[in-house]
Amino acid sequence: MIYVGCFLFLCGLTRVMASYPIWWSLAVGHQYSSLGTQPILCGSIPGLVPKQLRFCRNYVEIMPSVAEGVKIGIQECQHQFRGRRWNCTTVNNNLAIFGPVLDRATRESAFVHAIASAGVAFAVTRACAEGSATICGCDTRRKGPPGEGWKWGGCSEDVEFGNMVSREFADARENRPDARSAMNRHNNEAGRMSITDHMYLKCKCHGLSGSCEVKTCWWAQPDFRVIGDYMKDKYDSASEMVVEKHRESRGWVETLRPKYPFFKRPTESDLIYYESSPNFCEPNPETGSFGTRDRVCNLTSHGIDGCDLLCCGRGHNTRTEKRKEKCHCIFHWCCYVSCQECMRVYDVHTCK
Amino acid sequence: MAGAIIENMSTKKLVIVGIILLLFQVFSFMVGGLIAPSPTSAVHYLAAKCVDSVKSHQPKKWFMPWGPNQCEKIRTFDEAMARRIEANNIVFAVHIPLPQKEMSPWFQFMLVILQFDIAFKMYNQIEDGAMVTIDVGLAYRDDTVSEWTEMAHSVEQRKLNCNFTTAKTFENEGRYYECDLLPFMEVGSVAHKYYLLNIRLPVSERKKVNIGIGEVKDIRLVGIHQNGGFTKVWFAMKTFLTPSILIIMIWYWRRITLMTRPPVLLEKVIFALGISMTFINIPVEWFSVGFNWTWMLLFGDIRQGIFYAMLLSFWIIFCGEHLMDQTERNRFSMYWKQVGPIVFGSFCLFIFDMCERGVQLTNPFYSIWATDVGTELAMAFIIVAGICACLYFLFLCFMVFQVFRNISGKRSALPAMTKARRLHYEGLIFRFKFLMLVTLACAAMTVIFFIISQVNEGHWHWGDYTVQVNSAFFTGIYGMWNLYVFAIMFLYAPSHKRYGDEHSSGDQGANSGEDIQLTTTITHVDGPTEIFKMTGKTSQE
Question: Which of A74, A128, B226, B515 has a CA 20 to 30 Å removed from the CA of A97?
Answer without folding.
Answer: A128
